[in-house]
Write a structure and sequence with these properties.
- The protein is an alpha+beta fold.
- The protein has helices spanning about 5, 10-60, 65-75, 100-110, 140-195, 235-285, 290-320, 335-350, 370-390, 420-425, 430-435, 450-460; strands spanning about 80-85, 90, 115-120, 120-130, 135-140, 200, 210-215, 330, 355-360, 370, 395-400, 410-415, 460-465, 475-480.
- Helix 9 runs antiparallel to helix 12 (about 450-460).
- The longest helix has about 50 residues, at about 140-195.
């Protein structure tokens, strides 16, 4: 997760760089906009000032030159030139050359003039105002506008730099706030990956205190509702909740795996112990000759039991690794399950259990494209499980019918003790029911239902469990889709 192992930088650094880049672009765009706006603002201010001067002087056109000279003498010359518009329409004065004929006609109609022109080869601002029968025109060199714009632009440098620095600091704080809970969550995930459980999750607000326990209220058979996720952004709170669920799921999975391994060890150790005991007795010659055939039969039975258990383990491993061969073809399930019923009727009879075969009412079922061998394997697994827990005199039922949404439904029902709601929730998990009922009910390897469930999925169907059915015991239903078109 570190930069040296992945070759990537930290999230916080990337966020800081991104925020800094965004701030830089924003400041540059603002600077460019301000750069061009400063010119327009300076010109607008100069025109406004020049217009006010012209308005004052236009009221006394005969004294305007004297007033302008006096004002420039006191305040300092700014290069302003003046022209007086006489009632006859004649413009007299140094600024007359900057006024076009259109500008002169405009002033003669008593409208103010705001334009640009050229005077002595230099561009100038031209502002004219009329009053009574005369008017005044003032012209100011454009260099003054450029100088004012330059002053404005220089004054923008400090605010823009301050804005860039402030944006960088804000980006740093934002990056730390966003990345801190994610970094801490990543650290928790790493510790979970290393095998730790019940780890304190990071507080959703990224603070140092107020951590919530990931595993609080989450454990074997528990949920994530007991853990507090703290305050803060909703996404961070959801991340903490997900971490809590993950922690609980891992703890529950590992608990069940330990139970499964204990169950596997027990199931392997029992036949091995029996076989070793008889083998040692044979080797030591303590078994009388007349008991040797019986001892051999025990050894064969235990070896078959061990072989069956190991075969189940291998089948389950191949199913989970998606390496289980399935060869779909058009399958007559009525005939297939009818043959299976004949075999299981005899097996059930040997145990005093009633077996019933319930084919479709019309004797036909929709065509199904599936692997008949695997369907028979799955049904045999369910029937073996049903026979094992069904007491003498009670029924085991194999039924075939059309499914409501198309396809077919295969049911295996029994007259055994049934399943609780908790049993149904874990019925298809490896060794779950085996560990729960070992010593209370007859149990097999603990893998049959897990194999059946995964095999149903490989066949494109579903396998569901119901705690109690018409016969009083459990009901397992395999649903297979109908063949397309």
């Amino acid at each position: 997760m570190s930069a040296d192992r992945t070759g990537r930088g930290s999230l916080a650094r990337e966020l800081v760089l991104f925020a800094g880049l965004v701030a830089l672009v924003a400041v540059l765009l603002s600077g460019v906009a301000a750069w061009y706006t400063a010119r327009a603002t300076a010109e607008s201010q100069e025109r406004d000032r020049l217009g006010r001067q012209a308005a004052v002087l236009s009221r006394v056109p005969r004294l305007s030159a004297l007033l302008l000279d006096t004002e420039q003498l006191i305040a300092g010359s700014d290069g302003v030139r003046l022209a007086v518009l006489e009632p006859s329409g004649t413009l007299r004065g140094p600024a007359a050359g900057a006024v076009s004929q259109a500008g002169r006609d405009r002033m003669l109609t008593r409208r103010p003039l705001s334009a640009t022109g050229t005077l002595e080869g230099r561009p100038v601002l031209v502002e004219g105002r009329t009053f009574g029968s005369g008017g005044v025109v003032l012209a100011k060199p454009m260099e003054e506008v450029d100088a004012a714009a330059a002053r404005m632009r220089r004054s923008l440098a400090l605010p823009l730099c301050a804005g860039l620095a402030g944006a960088g600091v804000a980006g740093l704080l934002l990056a730390r706030r966003i990345s801190r809970p994610l970094t801490r969550a990543a650290a928790v995930a790493g510790r979970l990956a290393d095998g730790e459980r019940g780890i304190a999750a990071p507080a959703a607000d990224g603070g140092a205190g107020g951590d919530a326990g990931v595993g609080a209220g989450v454990g074997a058979g528990g949920g994530a509702g007991g853990g507090r996720t703290g305050r803060g952004p909703r996404e961070v709170a959801e991340l903490n909740r997900a971490m809590a669920v993950l922690d609980g799921a891992l703890e529950l999975s590992e608990h069940r795996r330990r139970e499964f391994l204990l169950s596997v060890s027990h199931e392997i150790r029992t036949p091995l112990t029996t076989m070793r005991g008889y083998a040692e007795a044979l080797a030591d010659g303590v078994i009388p000759p007349e008991r040797v055939p019986g001892t051999g039969r025990v050894l064969v039975a235990e070896s078959r039991r061990l072989d069956r258990f190991l075969s189940d383990l291998l089948d389950l491993a191949r199913l989970e690794a998606d390496e289980f061969p399935v060869e779909p073809a058009g399958t007559d399930l009525v005939a297939l399950l009818g043959r299976a019923a004949g075999v299981w009727r005899e097996r059930c009879a040997r145990h005093g259990v009633e077996f019933r075969w319930e084919p479709p009412a019309d004797g036909e079922a929709p065509t199904v494209r599936t692997d008949g061998f695997r369907v028979r394997q799955l049904v045999d697994c369910l029937l073996a499980n049903a026979l094992r827990i069904t007491p003498s005199g009670r029924p085991v039922v194999l039924a075939l019918a059309a499914a409501a949404g198309g396809g077919v439904r295969v049911e295996v029902r029994d007259g055994g003790p049934g399943l609780t709601e908790d049993d149904v929730a874990v019925a298809f998990e490896r060794g779950a029911l085996h560990a729960r009922y070992r010593g209370e009910r007859p149990v097999g390897s603990g893998l049959g239902l897990a194999i059946a469930y995964r095999l149903a999925a490989r066949l494109g169907g579903t396998l569901t469990a119901l705690g109690h059915g018409p016969e009083g015991g459990a009901v397992f239903t395999l649903t297979l889709p109908a063949s397309p078109g």
